[in-house]
Amino acid sequence: MSIAIDGPSGAGKSTIAKALAAKLKIPYVDTGAMYRALAYAFIQMGNPKDHAKALKEMDLVISPEGIYYEQKSLDHELRTAEVSKRASELSKDPLIRDYLLDYQRKLAQDQDVVMEGRDIGTVVLKDAKVKFFLTASDSIRAQRRYEQNLEKNIQIPLEQVKEDLQARDYRDYHRAVAPLKQAEDAILIDNTHLNLEETVDKMAAIVEAKNGVL
Ligand code: DC
User: What's the whole-model pTM score?
Assistant: First the structure.
């Protein structure tokens, strides 16, 4: 029983999806990391204009075990402001989306997963048993991202964090292909006034009600 979680940046999708997957004892798939991986590779390659050629030539491995560029494992490198912006820009390109789509679907073919992104309920896993659209107010999303940055020793003023987040939201919501959108059958979870545990508990209860077991 796969679960799709979509929503804008900073709504806590990754942390929540990870916690929910652990509770359900099924793998967690972060599709944003895949777009970030391509963005990282493209930046390293000098931001090539010919995306098709770059996709063929790049030395990038995206696998359940990890993401590797030129055999070097990537982790925090994928979380910089530059990579965030480039990932959001690149994700407008249908060629880039297609490149990842088959792989994302394959991951959910033989096993149940909790998959998180922007178009999981609307495009990637249209048949997911439970779909969530996770959001929170702009201010709280910016505040959370700001605090996460501080924990990682990244110093970006709160106002700047909020502006970057809103610019990214705008691009994600308005792109022509697979825009960020709540699927018709997705359950809206606004966690502006909920903490992590409350959000996960609420979602787990919904999954349990749909599935009968947890
Ligand atoms: O979830 P994230 O912030 O790590 O995602 C980075 C960017 O990747 C995001 O701005 C839009 C893009 N993305 C997408 O277009 N579709 C997805 N399923 C996941 C991410």
Answer: 0.93
